[in-house]
Amino acid sequence: MDGQRAEPAGTTGPGALLRAARLDRGWSQSEAARRLAAIASRDGAAGARPGSVKTQLSRWENGHATPAPEHRALLAELYGSTAAELGLEPAPGPPGGGVDGADRLRAALGRSAAVDDAGVALLRDQLRATAALDHRLGTAAAHATLTAQVDQLRELLAHCLDPGITARLAALLAAAALLAGDQERDRDAPDLAWRAYTVAGDAALRAGREDLSQRAGWGRELLRQDLDTPEPRPGGADRSEAPVALWVELGHDGGGEPSARDRTRAALRAAVAAHGAGRAEEAAAAATRARRLALRTGSAHTLARLEPLAHPTGR
To answer: Can you give the pTM of this predicted structure?
Structure first.
């Protein structure tokens, strides 16, 4: 244990089994997060920092969030259990019982077949509202909704047999996944961001949208640069902050105002530039503004890159 006070084991509800598995091993959340981050890093999940993992673990145990499939696999490995035993997936039913695969496929095909021009318009309006929320309030306000919409669009597209509807769904998925990539990068989850940009690129190709495909490529290039140079770049705009193709696709220009993500990263760049120029007072003010915006919008990416400014290394 790392000095944390004892935790009650009788918690019920979503996440209770996950919490119990940790307590059974005598681990604090910090210890479990450290071990989980090590497993994720071993599997190539860059950016899996124990601090951010601990926050996510707490949300999972408290039932405030549900682990994504890739995280369920990591948790199952961590605790030597199955996802079902940890309460993360339904327990498998008896052989031959419940709905079989053919029925599930028929249902999925039926849902996609029900999407007509009006349905596409509704999906577009839904995504436009989420994008506007992200633009105004940032990742924290729109992440859960956008994740669900990306999953929905992927499912509909995978089972759509109408070529015209397929192209329109693919364009919507490309736009949604681009924004999801920006959000995951903002959350300092480069592995998930890369996956989202890849989904966007594949969907853009299906839609015949070179502009969206190019934007997905830019996103992956930014992630590669982040890995090579974790420190923020003081000069120049971040291409990821101006998703022109996304706004064109959704018929929304953000009201002509910079997004919450733009403002946060602009403050970060200002802090880095002032720090590099030796203007300590200006750097501190910009860093304070960037930190305040990052906390409000959920930008772990910005918070992580402010750390070197708060604790500079000696030369």
So the answer is: 0.63
